[in-house]
TrEMBL record:
This is Glucose-6-phosphate isomerase. Belongs to the GPI family. SUPFAM superfamilies: SIS domain (SSF53697). PROSITE patterns: P_GLUCOSE_ISOMERASE_3, SIS. GO terms for biological process: gluconeogenesis; glucose 6-phosphate metabolic process; glycolytic process. Keywords: Gluconeogenesis, Glycolysis, Isomerase. Signal peptide: none annotated. One of its GO terms (cellular component) is cytosol. Residues 74-219 form the SIS domain. Its EC number is 5.3.1.9. It comes from the Bacteria. The lineage of its organism: Bacteria, Bacillati, Actinomycetota, Actinomycetes, Pseudonocardiales. Transmembrane segments: none annotated.
Amino acid sequence: MGVSELDVAIVHDGLASDAVALVDRLVDERVASQLAAQDPTLWGPAAQPEASIRLSWTTLHETSRPLLAEVEALAAELRAEGIDRVVLAGMGGSSLAPEVICATAGVPLVVLDTTDPGQVADALAGDLRRTVIVVSSKSGTTVETDSHRRIFESAFAQDGIDAASRIVVVTDPGSPLAETAGEAGYRKVFLADPNVGGRYSALTAFGLVPAGLAGADIAALLDDAAEAARVLAVDGADNPALRLAAALGAAHSVGAEKVVLADTGSGITGFADWAEQLIAESTGKEGTGLLPVVVENADAPGFADAGEDATPVALGPATGSARITTTGPLGGLFLLWEYATAVAGRLLGINPFDQPDVEAAKKAARALLDNPSPTGPTTAPNVVDGPVEVYASGNWMSAGVASVADALRAFLAAAPEHGYLAVQAYLDRIDDASTSLLRAELARRSGLQTTFGWGPRFLHSTGQYHKGGHQNGMFLQVTGAVVEDLDVPGRPYTLGELQRAQALGDGQVLAERKRPVLRLHLLDRLAGLAHVVKAVQEVRG
Ligand code: PA5
């Protein structure tokens, strides 16, 4: 799971003295030891009630130990029954960590954090006789996860498989999901520590159960975290979490609102996606925060040429252009970034444990599901260009726009200074994977820091920042036609309708906040995407 020692290296630049002064202040204030001791007063009186029920993650390397034997026992039982395919249904903090753990360990885990009917159908098409589904939801109310549970339960039954014996639940005590699991007699319920929030839950049952069932070495993760915990609790200038937090805090105080994350050969697969959620959802609120920009590699646009408004962070060995480099084994890095993000929250003056703006998009999606044919700007396309419909929200669309390329030009011309572009694809992240190539292409041509997110996955991650953080984003949504939809048993909507409502709902909320939104709807996914790529290439760099 990674061999190197936990470390944060900071290349000295103009900010070195500010960051050093901040580290000294954090050491004087004994922030590291107080955080390790779970002091909820570190973020001020307003954050204290939430912080007092959110800090148990600092000791998970000890408190999660008893889980190891429980997970191993269940894994052995399942193996003995010939069940060796693990599907995980969970959003945000309930799936990002196990996905990184399994990808890094090289063990297969099918992650469902999508409402794309095609992607879910592909997961259903695997061998159900060998499948167990882990349904993970802290709140036990997340609509995507609940839909997956319903769909799989019914699919097992249709195949003549005892569905209850194939469903394992991870949730908080007393949640609606815990209740449902009890009533339905699901195979096993792992109750997680309720005093750990979703994005800090990598080393709770949320990270360890699916990863352990899939075959990853979860004991090694806790060992590495235990090693890191000793270092991270020290009030000293060498504490890597204090150094990372201070570097980010110092950069933010002089205008660096973005953190560009590039993997430079860490040996850890997908760590940036996990860190993206931690940073964005923890800091992006009250009109401030740090926007993580995950790029393909250290040569990608946005990293090597990061301007004054962005701090490059290499995950893995240092590169020439990196200003900050974090290295270490995965279990240690989880804890390092959690400490650093919590401390950065203190420096930014926000509560790193809430997500006040996530609910707005959920509410708008619910309203659209209740009334699927609203009147208003989302109903008729502004332009139809071959296989692509163009929908504009906001007043950036100029007269005379007749094509996707025209729309992109008008849209990008509306970019505010130091703004950013978020590309949000509500598509199948396996079959439509090439959509993510739009990030680098648009970054190169627009000169803007550009993020890429799969919807609705990003709604549980950067979605908080987009609505709550610095209000200088512009949003390019890509949606696509659904060829074969899936019913959600017991619900009055299909998965495709839910996916559409999530895209339109979030678009509406962003537009209400006066952010420019451009939606490109692919009437045919393949032809539509090719058309969009061509249009992007027509936009001059
Ligand atoms: O960090 C968070 O709190 C969120 O990203 C959640 O993890 C995500 O929304 C999923 O929530 P739940 O686990 O309640 O289904």
